[in-house]
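In this notebook, the sequence line spells out the residues, with the fold written below as integer tokens. This is how one looks.
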Amino acid sequence: MFQNYVITAWRQIIGNPLFSFINIFGLAIALASCLLIMLFVREELSHDKHLPNADRIVRLHSAYRPKDAPPLLTVRSAGRMMKALKSYAPDLVESGVRLLTLEPTVTVGDKVFSESVVFADPSFFDVFALPWVYGDPSTAFNSPSDLVITSTTAMKYFGRIDVIGEVMTLCCMNNEPIEVSITGVIEDLPRTSHLDINMLVQMEESMFDFAPNLLATWTSVNTYTYFKLQPQVEAHELKERIWRWLDLESPLRDYFEEGTSPTDVFQPNVMPISEIYLKAADDAGTMGDMRSLGNQRMIYAFIGITLLVLLLAAINFMNLSTARASQRAREVALRKVLGASRKQLGFQFLGEAVAVAFLAMLLAMVAVELCLPLYNSAIGRTLEFSLAGELPLMLVLLATTLALGLISGSYPAIYLSRYMPARILRANQSADQPGSRLVRSLLVVFQFSVSIGLGICTAVIFAQTQFAQNMDTGFSVSNKLVLHRIGTSGVSEQRKTLATQLERIPGVKSVVFSSEVPSQDNENNTVFQLIDGAATSSAGEELVLNYYSVGKDFFQAYDMTLLAGREFNRESLSDEVATANGEESDSIAVASAVINESALRRLGFSSPQEALGKVLRADLFGAGTHDISIIGVASDVYFRSLKFGIRSSIFINQPNRFAEATISYSDSANSHDLRQAVEKVWGEVAPMTPISYEFLEGMVKSQYDDEKRQASLLAAFAVLAGVVASLGLYGLASFTAERRTKEIGIRKVLGARVRDIVGLLVWQFSHPVLIANLIAWPIAWVVVAGWLEGFEYRLGNGYVFLACCAAALLSLMIAWLTVAGRAVRVARANPIDALRYE
């Protein structure tokens, strides 16, 4: 019996090449899509699952929600929180550790690199049990400045892995180099870890006495804080304890006025480490994590799209099988006459569908091998697919293929096996009933609804990305080269010399310094109090505002518009924020500031001119308390992606915070020659510090890399869905035209022209496509409206409507071209042959 099923299935496959090609190719596309998404989802869901006791490790996030201001969400926390909470909740917390990331210059002999170095409390290895190559975690952090590195870092600097006892120099801590001794080598952290650690130095708080905002603060959030919970303790229990401590016992109560609880403004969260990669972006924003985070909604979206593509391929099989029912009606009737049961016939049709599905699976695996490099490039991953060692994945793929075959063959098995042989053999009637034609029409409507909906979403994402990239940001982006690491010791002391030498390069117009440049997603917030503004509603009120440190001529270099006043004066030292000398002082220094329009409104001024001369008081980290006079008001600019909007910002001139230099150059300058000249100057001024630079235009565009990747992948799957739907439509058109051969012949004899017949068939298949548009439009509209909500500035409804119209026209054109090709061949046939058709 089984052999008979196999022979029959094989005969059906090779005897009906069009039917077999459409089904096998369509199912192969669906399975290849499924396999690619499975590879992606598997990696996304595996982040941080490799860590021992991952279910007990949590991270502390900070959320500040000040009154009448946008919330500040961050994955970091204040430096003093870890020890306080560990002492307050020992029944919940077994251990805790703070991580602080810096980027010093690392020197070994004549090798000099800029590295991301993580400073950690001695308890680091109590929380994170990382795999070791050399050394012992119990003794690796016995003394300050002990260093643990990864095996790749060891090979990079020493050409070998056994490097315990070697010494490296980090430059600099408070302008002083420090020597660190290697006490251990760990394995490289996998890419499925949110931790980015190459060099790990034992941290003592005294190392950072020069920067109290890092560790000795309750309010400035700069450290990553992790806790290892006691067994059986849940993350929400620690969160509840933290909130109770904040309101009842914490020193933070002194920072709030009477009647305000700390948790009214400060609302920390505790997140399990296994959830960080996919959920931290929603909980605490994307700013400042060690590595880029994933997107949970993106995973759900692509899983849903894959299931839809699989369903489209299954629908093709159902539709074509029932459309061919008239061809197989006699076969079914004869088999029943000869004794076949309905159950046996059902198994036969299911077997045929499963055979087609497994042939499609083989083709899909070949397609995945060929497409994987392009796929990795599109999603920015390094996914691998290998049959060897992929047993769990292969089992899932086999199960998916079997399920797809059974789903595809279920309706034909039920539908075809129910034929009554007496009726079929007596009257030679068509097995196709009006009900089956209605079902096929509904399935075609569903197929095109999915394809049209994906097309609309793709068009809107592309349009929004282009809109964001091309929107007037309020500052000049072109012809700017950004030099990083200006604040590094050895460079900061030579800053003026560096600027002078760079400005001598032919084509260079200016060099300006700043703490950040546009597109850098940093948050610098502190409390400002308007002490000279009695006429405003904000006088005397403490407001949390963002601030940037920018040098003289910054606004001119970026073509930022000043609505009133002036920018910082090159000749006026009083404009600068004085650096504290480390001694306690009750005196209040003075400085100047430029505010933006949003800050103007937050401070309660009715016009830019009204703000000039007013004074703000603030405690600036590393500089002490300053009375800051407003000397100018600048127009709002989009320093960050349109997803975040514009922040109320204050620009001050604090040279010790400068970390970036912007080189503006003329249109006539050659970018290659410019880079070489800049590298030469840097090598002369800072020979022991590696150069790092980028073009600002690329930095601004890279803010939308995630959206561009989403759009590319969505477009690819939308095309695949369209191909699968079109294949099914072509097959239906072919079988429909074949069944109506006599009708077409009679129409031609009665005078119908080829275009009349083509128009008849094309219009018949246009109906489900038009209905599909009516279904797809509102669903896609809701989906894209939700996605656009993530942007502060976004496309209007007119663009979405235009995308819907474009998708409708494109779907109709695809349907017409698909059907017309087959219809023309049938319509041009000789009517004599048609009328002889049996």
